Amino acid sequence: MAEAQITDWLASQKQAMIDLLRDVVSIDSGSYDKAGVDAVGVRFERHFAEHGIPFRRESHSTFGDAIHAEVAKPGSNEKPVLLMGHRDTVFGKGEAGRRPFTIRDGRAYGPGVADMKSGLVMNVFVATAFHKFGGAPHPIKVLITSDEEIGSPSSRPVIEREGRSARAVFNSEPGRPTGNVVTGRKGGIFMHMAITGKAAHSGANFAAGVSAIGELAHKIVQIHALTNLDKGITLNVGLVSGGQSVNTTAPYAEGQIDLRYVDPADRARIMAAIEKIVATSYVPGTSATLTIKGEFVPVVQSAESKALFEKYQAAARQVGLTTLQGEFSGGCADSGFTAAVGTPTICGLGPVGGLAHTPEEYLEVDSIVPRAQALALAILRG
């Protein structure tokens, strides 16, 4: 009985889901914009309050607060199912005004519409359905985090703690453009490399100078050479800056490094190689430091996660998603943290979208209801 009530109710809530999505996409929430990220959180808290769902806020002084909500029978001490997602985006202040939420030809557009505000909307409506009709074999926890796009510096310990206490984790990052979900992901480390040289007039006193930019160039070549596409290892120095003026040897330079890998065993080996490159002075007189700014761990599919995916896949077939498969993604996500603590985890369960992190980011509007129904049925089947 609860199964039909829940799936029918979710079908009736399509416009309400779109309305909530419009509200949260219309609020700028770049990762470093605590006020904006928290404002999105307040909108979700309002939804919980309107539906009588208990929630609490776990505060953080620098980044957005973590929001927790729970649907459970009184006195239940069973391990919950965790529905997880982040509300920060990669976009700066003013982007929501420049690119407001719109729907054209069945697709919704706007900053964060797919990555991943629609997944959060889906999660809260699924939780609301169980609060309204009951039927969940286990408690349901909703976790809305704040800083995934920069490696979850404040949210990682929260995610790991909640993941350890959960029986299963569904992370509602966007469904792939193929309609698939994500059963494996790369790990990633984001690093900052700072190089010190010595300034000198590049015409009158060139020999006295030590170029930090010259040193950076050597290091970039060496770091990029660590890429091994056959093993899924990529190195990218994606941002560089440095120097004082065109006629001065550069006293300072910096580069930001993105490492992606598949096999957890490769992490230590590649990091040791990067650290050696940073410690080596190719231009005599320079020095350098390396700082890890953020890190994700891989999602490696365990036997338990495979069984969880198969249960979800069967539920998806029941609501018409007959071609849905598991897919590997080179992108990183918070799901790696819960997979790494041993909790069965699947990712990319959110509504289908694509072109994340670009002005062309889109969401397939008609995917919202069936993806919500598939998640609800997977929860019902324990």
From TrEMBL:
Fetch the PROSITE patterns from UniProt: ARGE_DAPE_CPG2_1
Active-site positions on this chain: 88, 148
Cofactor entry: Zn(2+)
List each copy of the Peptidase M20 dimerisation domain by range: 183-285
Q: Does the keyword Membrane apply?
A: no
- Name of this chain's protein: Peptidase M20
The keyword tRNA-binding belongs to this UniProt entry's keyword annotation: no
Alphabetical UniProt keywords: Hydrolase, Metal-binding, Zinc
Record-linked SUPFAM superfamilies: Bacterial exopeptidase dimerisation domain, Zn-dependent exopeptidases
Q: Which organism does this record belong to?
A: Bradyrhizobium forestalis
Any Pfam family hit:
Peptidase_M20
What's a single GO MF annotation on this record? Answer: metal ion binding
